Amino acid sequence: MINLFRLRSNYFCIIVSMHFFLFQExxxxxxxxxxxQAVVLDDxxxxxxxxxxxxxxxxxxxxxxxxxxxxxVHSGGVASGFxxxxxxxxxxxxxxxxxxxxxxxxxxxxxxxxxGKASSLNSNDCFILDCPERLYIWKGQVRVDVxxxxxxxxxxxxxx
Length: 160
Fold this sequence. Notes:
By secondary structure, this protein is α/β, with parallel strands linked by helices.
């Protein structure tokens, strides 16, 4: 990612940054692998990029700005030497998926896939149940414009 900032009227400062995102449930080995890959990329580009480690649910505003309030985090992953995803309970693509929509501003708004259980629901957030044929939005006690949620998270295009 390249950021261009104007310092004075005639001068620009170019900042190249490299973000690596760590999921909340990632293992220590997966985090170490991400750090090693960041060093490999940093070496490839002669140390120019600024490395930024981003942990799920602790994303800084400058990282969330990249997504313009439309960040979607899916659960799951791929089988690897660190974790065998086939052993975990994963539904098929045709199964309903539940997303928790959190955030208080246009910048920090994001949807995170949670377990499709009633215990995942709370009254402080908005939830979207993405079924193969239909979308359901539940908003609890929060003041959320459902049309805005439907617009921001156009699930038919963004999540499939």
